[in-house]
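Input.
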Amino acid sequence: MKKIVAWMLGTTMTVSLLFTGCGGGSDAKEASAGTELLNVSYDPTREFYAKYNELFAEHWKEEGGEDINVTQSHGGSGSQARSVIEGNEADVVTLALAHDVTAIEEAGLIESGWLDEFDQDSSPYTSTIVFLVRKGNEKEIKDWGDLVKDGVEVITPNPKTSGGACWNFLAAWAYQQEQDGNDEEKTKEFMEKLYENVLVLDSGARGATNTFVENGQGDVLIAWENEAYLSMEEYPDEYEIVTPSVSILAQPSVAVVDSNAKEHGTEEAARAYLEYLYSDEAQRLAGENHYRPSNEEILQEFSDQFDLDMNLVTIDDFGGWDEAYETYFNDGAIFDEIYGG
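Output.
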């Protein structure tokens, strides 16, 4: 059975990493035997964190001399953030965009200043948005403008529940703003046509991938770059990746859920878990799993895999996430306008 199908069998996966033996001395505080961390993440990170958890457990063993168990939970990023706010006792979150982490902060579970706690705005790896099409690209999809053509069936998730869907929306908006000379009304018309062509609006990015890849629906999937590469890896003769002329620098965000970590006594382990994402070993693992390492030198090692010359806008071009969310994704904002509320 293909790996993507296997990962879709549940939205929560437990990875128990138990090692025996003695660890050497370290400045790190020793964790109690069987220390447990819960990482609440967005849905396309399953494969990466399954491997990273093993890497981190070995590192933590060497540093602290004890075993650590990591449990993963996956789903649409917005839905995952809400689950933490509503009581999912995450020690760390690794979500698709900063706005979702900020929502948890505003609920009083994450201390202010989290964005500066780790390097690169607490974004240890990045991605971007590309198109996945079926082999042969029968509909000749080359850029965003082709997605509004009659008869083109588009698959993308719902920005109300999926962080990846928000990046998708903003990348398409940036393209059309460039075409229209920043005429907002014309861009709204374009976006309305695009979403009229959306066949299925799944709740998360992995669900959208499953709709396109496993269920065979649609002509084009608007996808995280890493998710598109994973599909290509699994089905090398069935799909092609199309890079649009304009895309966006997608920066997934990580944070310790301070309130929960304090209650669980896992503050040091949780912080170390996120810090180690910036290690050379973890950065290369991210690249091997089709994420763009934040370490520029290591990113260059993957220049044969990634198009490093893409025209990428950033969230700053939209005024930051608070402004972008208010303008495009809050109830009654532009997405609701163009998708019918």
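The chain is about 40% helix and 20% strand.
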